[in-house]
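I had to read the description of the data format several times before I understood it. In essence, backbone conformation is discretised, so a fold becomes a row of integers matching the chain in length. I therefore recommend that a typical entry be quoted early in the introduction. For illustration, here is how one protein appears when written out as sequence plus structure tokens.

***
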Amino acid sequence: MQRQTRRHVGGAVRTATAACAAITLAGCFPAGGEPAKRSPGAAAGEVTVVRGNRVYPLTIRVTDWQVGPHPQVPERGNGVHVSFRSTATGDLPEVVVEVALCAVDAADVVLLCSTVVARQEDRRIEDGDRWIGPAELPRSLSETARVVLLPDQLRPGLNAGDPKDGDGYVPPGLPSPGDRLRTA
């Protein structure tokens, strides 16, 4: 009786192990239970947008920035007003493209980040502006040495991280204050 029970338990364990391996290989859930976050690409004042290994026909460039009080909430302190230009050389593969825009200090340590959005319906060359902050931060945005963009598409798509139903792309997260960025 004991030998028969061991055989059933051993068979059940082998079956469960094989089922888990098959589910993982099929892409129903990634190994480890959650898709791994990617490291963002190199930060720069001008970037060509990428999604994994795919290069988009879109370049975004910081054209100007200045630190000062936000006109709508001057009592909250300084923010960084950023002007940028996006240039599309073809049709965007997605309706909305979003990339990180970060104010960094002289050592490329993030003070604060926001995002820049480009849409399919935008003109080929689009000028825009964006405020980063003001915000309650451990360090002042007055320490901003430059403003950089990260090239990675932040929007994950419908089936992010699922190689079975999507492309398996998992975007990097928005950098946090204190993160050191890799620069181009």
Observations:
- Residues 43 and 142 are 20 Å apart (CA to CA).
- The chain has two domains: 1-34, 38-184.
